[in-house]
């Protein structure tokens, strides 16, 4: 089974339409089973996609009140994919008074159920520190699987990561008897001890990067970007985690100019594994 996570930085990129096509080309080549995307944006002023067209795109409404607009990044991407994906999208907050920013999950198997909830104390749509977790259940090879997608705050931030992860644990607790994949941008560096990464690992999660038989350096931020403005090194802050130790064949940095084109200020993580 193949999984991909990417913080897309969508509609903030130059040559955005070209980069969507490049991302689609990479997905078409790799044929991922599960895709989790963060910073999936749509223009607040754009017209909505009608319900019939949405249904034809295999959209699953996690929230019936959420409006999918014509330039929703995930919706535009899906139109260029060669395989059929079931998908959902939820907003977390607005950005620059221009975009709804949210989370999207794409899966090749049907979505059985989905929900989302706040992980931040903040619940202000106009504040970028407002964070949510998107959770989707599907069935793969006859096995129920939960897919969680999140974009978190920083360890030392006023809306700190620890509290957000505690809330994540609460939200996922009812499903711990099933296989869970937790994908996303944790904004916490794997190599820094006694901060977010160690805190997550202390809760019993398995990092597919650590489990992988074949891996590279894993770094997904390699320059100064928004949120890491003073960064002068390479960071591993994007992850694919599981609640079980699985056979992981490989974990590779994706969309880095070698393994797929660079399409965002983040690089992606691609993992190939087997379900236990």
CATH fold-level assignment: Deoxyribonuclease I, Chain A
Number of domains: 1
The parts where pLDDT drops under 50 for at least 5 residues are none
Which CATH architecture is right? 4-Layer Sandwich
Q: Could you tell me the radius of gyration in angstroms?
A: 17 Å
Number of strands: 13
| N-C termini distance | 11 Å
Major sheet: arrangement of strands? 3-4-2-1-13-12-10
Number of H- or I-type helical stretches? 6
Structural class: alpha+beta
> Main beta sheet: strand number and arrangement?
7 strands, mixed
Taken as a percent bin, the fraction of beta residues is: 25-35%
Helicity range of the residues? 10-25%
Report the principal-axis shape: globular
Fourth-tier CATH superfamily name: Endonuclease/exonuclease/phosphatase
Give the helices and strands as they follow along the chain.
EHEHHEEEEEHEHEHEEEE
Q: Tell me the name of the CATH class.
A: Alpha Beta
User: Which whole number gives the mean pLDDT?
Assistant: 96
Organism: Paenibacillus nuruki
Keywords: Hydrolase
GO molecular function, one term: hydrolase activity
EC number: 3.1.3.90
């Amino acid at each position: 089974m193949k999984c991909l996570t990417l913080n897309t930085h969508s509609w903030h990129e130059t040559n955005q339409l070209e980069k969507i096509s490049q991302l689609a080309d990479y997905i078409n080549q790799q044929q991922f089973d599960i895709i989790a995307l963060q910073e999936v944006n749509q223009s607040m002023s754009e017209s909505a996609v009608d319900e019939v067209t949405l249904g034809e795109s295999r959209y699953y409404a996690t929230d019936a009140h959420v409006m999918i607009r014509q330039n929703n990044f995930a919706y535009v991407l899906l139109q260029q994919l060669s395989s059929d994906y079931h998908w959902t999208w939820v907003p977390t907050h607005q950005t620059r008074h221009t975009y709804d920013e949210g989370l999207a999950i794409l899966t090749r198997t049907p979505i059985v159920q989905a929900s989302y909830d706040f992980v931040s104390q903040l619940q202000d749509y106009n504040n970028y520190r407002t964070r949510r977790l998107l959770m989707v259940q599907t069935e793969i090879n006859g096995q129920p699987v939960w897919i969680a997608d999140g974009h978190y705050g920083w360890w030392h931030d006023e809306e700190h990561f620890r509290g957000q992860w505690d809330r994540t644990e609460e939200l996922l607790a009812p499903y711990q008897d099933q296989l869970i994949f937790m994908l996303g941008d944790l904004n916490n560096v794997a190599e820094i001890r006694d901060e977010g990464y160690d805190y997550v690992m202390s809760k019993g999660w398995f990092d597919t990067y650590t489990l992988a038989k074949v891996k590279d350096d894993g770094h997904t931020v390699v320059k100064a970007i928004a949120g890491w403005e003073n960064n002068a090194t390479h960071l591993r802050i994007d992850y694919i985690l599981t609640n079980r130790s699985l056979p992981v064949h490989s974990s590779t940095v994706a969309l880095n100019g070698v393994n797929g084109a660079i399409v965002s200020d983040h690089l992606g993580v691609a993992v190939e594994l087997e379900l236990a």
